[in-house]
Amino acid sequence: MNTLRTIVLMGVLTALIVAVGGLIGGKSGMMLAFGFAVVTNLANYWFSDKIALAMAGATPISREQAPELYEIVERISKRAGIPAPPIYLAPTESPNAFATGRDPEHSAVAVTSGILRILSLQELEGVLAHELAHVKNRDVLITTMAAVMGSVVTMIAHWGMYLGGYRDDREQPVNPIFAILLVILAPIAAAVIQFAISRTREYEADHTGAELCGHPEELASALSRLEDGVRQIPNMQANPAMSSLYIVQPKPVDWIVRLMSTHPPIEDRIKRLEEMSRQSSHYR
């Protein structure tokens, strides 16, 4: 169901790009919008892992430095049927983790210094299973594409406003009031779709990760402790463009911001995992 929702939402986001591009310059505007989306997506496809790790200040951590981490990652990767990715360490006491990379063969997992300090090995296994589920499901590529496409909608909408290029199918100027509304509403619609895609991928990674580690309750416990840890030590240096990669929001959010969050409410994620744990216990 989460995969179906993602496909539908990506389709709607693509249609929004084409529609806005069409209003700028008819068929030529659609082609321009499509071409721009393709180029920007290809750039992110090839370089998203390097960009994310550099923005987090993450550096490789060796097996000698973290043998238990490597043992967990290799075990979970084998269960997932993917190559074990390299492990990076981000030098911040704010507890968190993320995965990045365009596919399982070109991926990486990063943990912060803070997460190693506050979680048990069992909870850490749940977190790493969640991140490896993102790798297995190619979620980093999906959310990156959604973010880029959302940005394309915003840029195209504003280009049309500044250049006065809004045209309908008959190449006639569009009503200026409608054009202004488009500039305002199109980016909002794109953002809502983008965040919805990110939330569906988080739910799916929780579910897949819990299956990979075999202990949904440990992932639920980890999420609760990470949420508390981020409240106490927020990662104020975290780039907003990277927030969707982390397992929990790197900065505390109020209820207004939560409406436009890249992550589902922690309470809801924990509730789903606890229900999953009860069901798995029933069949043991």
Report the average pLDDT across residues: 81
Helix content: 55-70%
Q: Structural class, judged by helices and strands?
A: alpha+beta
Tally of contiguous helical segments: 9
The biggest beta sheet reads: 4 strands, mixed
How many strand segments?
4
Q: What is the rounded Rg?
A: 20 Å
**Strand arrangement across the biggest beta sheet:** 1-2-4-3
Alpha-carbon distance between the two ends: 25 Å
Note the run of SSEs as H and E.
Answer: HEHEEEHHHHHHH
* Range of strand content: 5-15%
Number of domains: 1
**Shape by Cα distribution:** globular
Residue windows where pLDDT falls under 50 for at least 5 positions: none
Structure summarized in a few sentences:
The chain has 9 helices and 4 strands, in the order H-E-H-E-E-E-H-H-H-H-H-H-H. It is of the alpha+beta class and about 280 residues long.
